[in-house]
Amino acid sequence: MHHPVYVFRHGETVWNAEKRAQGFLDSPLTETGRAQARAMGRALAHELRQAGHAPADVVVRASPLGRVRETLALAAEEAGLTHHDGSFDDRLREMSWGEWDGLTGPEIEARWPGAMAARRLDRWRYEPPGGENYIVAAARARAALDDIAALAMERPVAVFAHGGIGRVLRGLFLRVPEAEILDMDQPQDAFYRLHRDTAARIVSHGAD
User: What pLDDT was estimated at residue 39?
Assistant: First the structure.
């Protein structure tokens, strides 16, 4: 990729604060989440200035889920990004927890005793009832990443997505083992610049 790809996770949501699985379901950003989105937009604007890229040159690709749309709208306003209906890509949706979407850990344990422990034994392959495992998510992330990499041959790309699918994108880009992907962080107050076989973590606090 000749140009960088910036990978963002959405800001904190109500369900994040309540420790509920979201998956394909949604909840709005908290006030903290909205502040995080704005700060990430300002940090991206700073990055683009440092690299000599005009905001209008940045291609946006994003999950269509509401929490990402809300984050993108706030960050784009700060950074001067433009986006449209074609910017949204279903392959960038978060991993689905299936029947677990919307539930807390204790609620899942009460309805499916032992299931959470079973998942911890093989997080890459375990598939929640009606949901996805990392194998399925990685297949669609790979297809999305291939298209993003093609775009980045010509222009910088800003990708707005989620914690789980975002670390899969980073891991595939870096070509690291499954276990290393699972240990990657999922920040909501920082984002990553993927470029030249490296992933640089950019903290949004204090950005110009």
Answer: 98
Tell whether the torsion through CA atoms of 206, 171, 86 and 47 is positive or negative. positive
| Pick from 42, 76, 38: nearest CA to 58 | 76
- The Cα–Cα gap between 68 and 38 comes to 13
Q: Specify whether the CB–CB gap between 167 and 192 falls below 8 A.
A: no
Q: Which helix (H) or strand (E) holds 158?
A: strand 157-161
Tokens encoding 54: 């005009």
Rounded distance, CA 89 to CA 86, Å?
Answer: 8
Helix-strand-coil split of the chain, %, nearest 5 = 50, 15, 35
Where b means 16+ CB within 10 Å and e means fewer, 73-94 reads ebbbebbebebeeebbbebbbb
Q: In sequence order, what are the residues at sequence separation of 6 or more whose Cβ sits closer than 8 angstroms to the Cβ of residue 33?
A: 10, 11, 12, 13, 16, 67, 71, 188
- Neighbour-count burial for 187-196, b at 16+ CB within 10 Å, e otherwise: bbbbbbbbbe
Residue 94 known to be catalytic: yes
Q: Which of 47, 70, 78, 94 is catalytic?
A: 94
User: Model pTM greater than 0.85?
Assistant: yes
Task: State the pLDDT confidence band at 91, using cuts at 50, 70 and 90.
Answer: very high
Residue 208 has pLDDT above 70, yes or no: no
Catalytic residue check, 84: no
What is the side-by-side strand order in the sheet with 190-195?
59-62, 157-161, 5-9, 190-195, 198-203
